[in-house]
Amino acid sequence: MQITSEALERAIEELARLPGTGRKSAQRIAIHLLKQSEERVLTLAETLIQLKKSVSRCSVCGTITDRDPCPICNNPKRVNGTICVVEEFQDVYIIEKTNEFRGRYHVLGGIISPLENIGPDDIRIKELLTRLNSEEEDIQEVILALNPDAEGEATSYYINKLLLNYDVRVTRIAYGIPMGTELEFIDEATLSRAFASRTAF
Amino acid sequence: MQITSEALERAIEELARLPGTGRKSAQRIAIHLLKQSEERVLTLAETLIQLKKSVSRCSVCGTITDRDPCPICNNPKRVNGTICVVEEFQDVYIIEKTNEFRGRYHVLGGIISPLENIGPDDIRIKELLTRLNSEEEDIQEVILALNPDAEGEATSYYINKLLLNYDVRVTRIAYGIPMGTELEFIDEATLSRAFASRTAF
C-alpha cells in the first residue's frame, strides 16, 4: 500500500483516537475537512486549543468553567440554599437544559465504586460537607441526582447517611417510567421502581 | 439554561459541524478532549491545520497528495501503461489497501450526474485523454473501477465509448457476490449481475 499524503494519514490517525470515531469515520471527517476552507479548519483547530487552555473547574461546585467561581455559583438570581448533587459536569449541562432547577450544583467528579477502587475520599464529598457548614450558603435542601445504577445508588445512600448529622432536607430526583414511552418497552427494574414510588393522583 | 463554559460550548458547536457527528457525539468528543493533556489536544489541532495546508491534488492523477506528482505517479516501480479510473481519491486509498493493483490511477474527482448538473466536462475526463495521448505513459489498459450505481454505470459507458477511438484495452473490475457472504443475503441486482458475468471454472 502506498500512501499519497502523509498529512492526511496523520490526520486520520489523530481523529481515530477520538471517542466513537473508528478509522472509517476518521477518514470521512478528514476528507470533509479537506473540502472545507482553510479558515473553517483553522477555526476548528483554534477552538479545540482554547477549550483546553481556558477551561478549568469551579472551586465551589466543581463544574467545568472559564471563570472561577462559575456563572451559576456566581449568579445572585440562582436560589441559594438548594444544592443538586451530580456525578459529572455533563449532568449539570443536561439538567440546565430542562430549565427546571434554579438552585446551585455540586459536582462529585466521580462515583463511589469499590470495583474501580474509588472511595468516598476520591470524590468531592468533603467539599460538599464544607458547603453545608458554610453560613453564607445556608443550605436547606440537598437533591441527589445520581445515575440509577449500582454505583449511583451506593453513593446516594452513603451521602444520605452522612447528611443525617446535618440540619438539611435530603431528596432525590424521581426514578420511574420515562415520558412518551410505552409500558411494553420498559424493563422490569424500572417498572418495579415506578410502582414502589407511586404517588397520589 | 446557564452555560458555565463558553469555550466548551464553542468547541461543541464546531465539532457538531463534522460529518456523522451530532450534538451528542460532539459533546462526548469535547469532554474527552478536556480530559486529555494539553499536548495531545495541540497535536490534534496542529495535524488538522497541516492537513489543510500541505495537501493538494496531484497534477497527473488527481489524487490527494503532499507532493506533486504524488508518490504513486512518481514511483518507477509502479507498472507503467495501466491506469485505474476511480471517482474519488478515497477510492485510491481503498484499492491501495488491497495491494492488488500495481499500476497508476486516474481520479475523476466526480461522476457524470445529470440530476446534479455534472457533465463530462466537469470531471477529469479531458485529463485522462491527455494521458492516453502521452507517449511517455504509453497506456495499454484502462481499468474502470467506478461505483456500481446509475451514475457510475453511465460514466463507465461514456468513457468506454470515448476510448473506442484509442488503441487501448478497456476493462472494468468484476461486480458480483462479495466474498464471505451468503447468497441468501444478496440483493437481486447483484445476483443477476453475478450470473451474467459468470466465468469458466
Automatic annotation (TrEMBL), chains A, B:
Function per UniProt: May play a role in DNA repair. It seems to be involved in an RecBC-independent recombinational process of DNA repair. It may act with RecF and RecO.
Highest classification ranks of the organism: Bacteria, Pseudomonadati, Balneolota, Balneolia, Balneolales
Protein family according to the UniProt entry: Belongs to the RecR family.
Toprim domain segment(s): 81-178
Example of a GO biological process term: DNA repair
Gene3D superfamilies in alphabetical order: 3.30.60.80, 3.40.1360.10, 6.10.250.240, RecR Domain 1
Pfam families reported for this sequence: RecR_C, RecR_HhH, RecR_ZnF, Toprim_4
HAMAP family: RecR
Protein encoded by which gene: recR
Xref: SMART domains: TOPRIM
Zinc finger boundaries on the chain: C4-type: 58-73
Highest rank taxon of the organism: Bacteria
Alphabetical keyword list: DNA damage, DNA recombination, DNA repair, Metal-binding, Zinc, Zinc-finger
Protein name: Recombination protein RecR
Keyword Membrane included in the entry's annotation: no
GO MF annotations in UniProt: DNA binding; zinc ion binding
